[in-house]
Structure prediction request, 352 residues.
Amino acid sequence: MEARQSLDDGGMEGFGGKCLGDALSTCSSYYVVTTRGDDVRIFRSRDSLKQVLGAIEQAEEAALLAFAAGYEVCSSTEAPPWVGVNPDEGFTILEELGVDCDQKQSWLSRKPVRISSSGEVVEHKAFKVKYGDTGCYPGRRPVGLQEAQAEDCEDARGAWFANAARLEAASVDAFLRLREELALHGAGQALQDAALASAQDEVRHAEVTTRLARHFGAEPPLPSVADVPLRSLREVLLDNAVEGCVRETYSALLAHHQALHAEDAEIREAMARIADDETRHAGLSWDIDAWATPNLSTEAQAVLHEARRQAIAVLRAEVAVPLDPELTADAGLPSPDVASALLDSLEQSLWA
Prediction:
């Protein structure tokens, strides 16, 4: 199947039988067939497909129209294939554009494609996300972090805390590197000391989350971080905008939510301690931003703003994934609706 072909009027000879939802990616030809009793119809164009679908009220219908318009619906397990799920507002499909690699990191490129309730298709600017490390876990992802996930674990709680423990351990490297880079670029001693203190916090976090992972039958994978040169101030600030001002800020709020809502007493106690530390780490990110931003050009400030905007879009995609009931109950993780509301609160109070 050539996913970049489009289904404009007269432009395609077939569209692979009854291809809906997850089956889209396995279609071998390019037409849609519907049956009702003895009435069999074939739809070969996007417009005729819109007519038979009518109002777009289901995510699968939006995915079908996106494919018909020539977009390859994202099939990665790291993000849902659709972000928006409000039929009145339409759906946002994530098209996966592939992986870009440089010496420091691998990146997934994704393009949001909006499908309105009337079937109109509008594409938005593509964004990049670090490959292999999406997921709402506490901690700061260091540059050069290599892909790894916890081995299969039947207990969702064990898998979640195993991946969290890996990221907490990797965050030690992230903050030690950040301290060196802050010193290199002339940041004050207070910022450097706060980065060192954050690294020490992450050692404790890794120990706590590792203990929880093992309690639920999982073994955290050890983080592997490539040895890369210290970065330019521009690179440090871009990473801080994404990892600190967006992801760590949200993970701090997430940890507070878990500390309040986890039904498992041990998890609740652990997340209460982690939440306070993560709040300080988020504060450090904003302090770094406040230290550097006034000296940046208007163009450079706009680049940081765009980086935060794209990072928020990625987070919204991640939190839209339904969770195992044990994670929302025992671990206190928010449901997609609640997580979206938490992001809304941050957009109104900080990210605006």
About this structure: The radius of gyration is 22 Å. The beta strands are 32-36, 39-43, 82-86, 90-101, 106-115, 121-123, 127-130.
